[in-house]
Write the structure tokens for this entry.
Amino acid sequence: MALSEWVRESRKYILGTIILVLVLAFIPFIIGFDQYLLLILSTAAIFAVFVVAWNIIGGYAGQLDLGAFAYIALGGIVAAQLLVVYNITPWIGMFVGAGVSAVLAAAIGYPTFRFGIKEVWYALLTAALVVILNNIFHLPEVLGSLDHYLPPANGWYYLKFPVYENIYWFILAMLAIVVFINLWVSKSKVGYYLRAIREDELAAEALGIDVRKYKLEALVLYAAILGFMGYVYIVIAGTYSYHTFDSPHSIAIAIMGIIGGLGSIAGALTSAITLKVVEEYLRASIGATIPGIHLLIYGLLLIIIGIFKPDGLAGIYESLKKRRTSGRKKISGGGNP
Amino acid sequence: MMDPILVTNNVLDGLLMGLLYSLVALGLALIFGVMDIINFAHGDFVMIGAYTAWLLAMAFWVDPSVTAIITVPLFFIIGIGIYKLVIEPVLGAEPLIQIAVTVGLGYVFQNIALALWHAEPKSFPAPWLNFSISAGGITLSVAKLIAGGISIISLYLIHYMLTKTKFGLAVRATSANREVAPLMGINVKKVYAITFGIGTALTALGAALYMSWGQTNPYLGQSFSLLSWVIVAMGGLGGVIGVLYSGLIVGVLEALGSTFITPSARLAVVYLAFFLLLWFRPRGLFARR
């Protein structure tokens, strides 16, 4: 699709995204650059990037990927090691990390889709992938049991700062880009193919859609975005080790995607940002007395949404909109193309 | 070069663990095979079962394996309750929805455990059965031998139930065709509820046996869930025998990974085998069809 055509077709959503990101970017001024709040916002924003990227494989292609941190950690650790060992700037390292993650995704995805592995088996395979990489990076020849640290130096060369606002703005810029990639995918031929595959794979194949190819493209794109953002995740986390290959967080990303509503960018954004902020708030307020309370709420939400509203927040929004069609038009970030 | 006696010892140990894995995975195989429910919370039932066994063992000061007398019937009832509340509404739903709901259930279990007992591992401090016997250089844990023995007996009992009883016939009929089964006078909903109850009860039995030597934490279920699914994938729908063989293979693979690489890489070996299995034998090693 030509660029101008894409811009014309998704003008409303592009504008919505830009407004949303600008509003989010303005928050540090309101909260007076409170570093603790900025850390929470940065965490929420980077998870929003992950969930919006997950939307490509999980929402459009309908493959329940539980392996997000396989790609995030791999890409991030590659970029971090390039910086630590060879002093190569993450501006190069992040692209290398994205490339390595994409190659891994292609190597895993090709046989997986070739042999028609889907649904529960795809979910299990991706969950197992995180554990395998975790175990491999735990070997003494790779990272061993120790925590590793980025160099103490700060600055744009290291994409690492003594304050959080710079990294927060960088993540917001990336968030806008990843939302645009989603919009592009959703409006392009590939997006329609992917949704056809999600609805009925056999029918899609019968219509001549190369199911394997488009699933693989979705997986590689998702993995590349995650691999690229891995370094930023490590900057926020402060350290990296085999623990960065984190199964519970990988599942959490899929959960946020499902709660948001499959295939909905606005839903993915809303659920990631809301759940992460609520999570941090609960952790800070009652987390000391009841550890894990936020995850308990995730679990309950997931059960309730699964049973009563399988199309997630986006579905709730749609039914609200239907109920008041004559009401005034609401501006929503990203929209629901 | 590895000491052959050590390798034999570890493989035997792996076989005993494999028996326990088969017992736990059989519950999942029943739930998946009969009801077509994708249960991602199966391992978390093991975790809750392990805490229950630990609590009872501490209260009555008996070996945790003994508490199975209470936990198995208790979990049968809990299983039916969970089935009615959470599973029945998503029967026949898309796989993704079932996964989401059961992942949610697992999260709830994990975080209830975290809230109640915190992250520190819990174990029974008086190791009644946790001693070893040696013969010819081979040393095996008595607790694991007992667990393996009880697992085999339980597997046989389930096999007997499925193949020789009227209820087993109803289960197999439902599994074969859930549209036609009710026409033959089978109460499918009841079969489902009882099957889920049995599957859950098996996790409690496995958990009680495991607590004789093991320790539990809120995340114990994650590896049990994945291992059980690997066993189900390997066993195909080959019945109890398939699950038994697959459990033994997983136990041995884990032991070999632990021996020849390092203990922390043992799961990677099993999961790599799982990748190859799904790619090259997607119907499992022991599929009937």
Observations:
- The longest strand of chain B covers residues 132-135.
- Residues 18 and 250 of chain B are 6 Å apart (CA to CA).
